[in-house]
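BUG: 3D viewer hangs when loading the predicted structure for this chain

Environment: internal workstation, default settings.
Expected: structure renders.
Actual: progress bar stalls at 90%.

Input used:
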Amino acid sequence: MPKLLVAFWSTIAGRPHKRGPLTEFMPAEKHDYPIQNKHYIAFERAAVSFLRKQDLIEPNHITYFRFAICLFLLLFFSRLSYLSILILAILGGLSDFFDGAFARSASKKTRLGSLIDPLADKALIFTIVYILIMKKVLVPLYVLLIAIMETHLIIVPLLSWFYGLLRRRTDDVPYSTSKKKKTDAILARSKPVFMGRVKVNLYIYAILSMMLGKICDSMFLMDLANVLLILGICAGGIAFGIYMMRWSKELHPLT
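Structure tokens produced before the viewer hung:
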């Protein structure tokens, strides 16, 4: 029993006895940086230097913290002021910067992190959006449109599964059956695109504008938030198309 508990805690803490394909550390690649500039890369390394010097926290732990913020907000938003919600949302946004910067600068990028980091971003956004709907600040139609733009997260895996059935193979990567290749296929589907980053940033700025508009009682900020949301939905539509094209060309070429 003690050995089982140790193994369980090691897995939860991100320190499995033997790292699998999803948790093994990998060096960062050039396209992983949101800004591919030597000055920005130096800024990232300086910002997370204190994290690189310790051996207690891994980048994925910071991502888990973002999920924890979402859960806390969902449970207690009715008791929180707009200012408190905004502060927690900013903390969640900062965690998004620190987990990525830490993973890149310390060469602790993992396939698991590449999968859950965008999910944590979307969870935070949808949590704040849900709260704003419940407080009758945000029009539900926006949420429906945002959700439609994110359906590639379901559609692409379903298409891969269906494609595999048609070709009578269990692995959607041609000529390969290894677990590593499978996880690489998942990683390729989840790799962010530029318009996806634009979309997320527009959503974040829209939510911040809306929260500040309620705190400051400013109609200008509320109108700005609506414009940013519409632009974000348009960027989401473009990103949706890019994800579908990438799936077709990179993972399942038609020729």
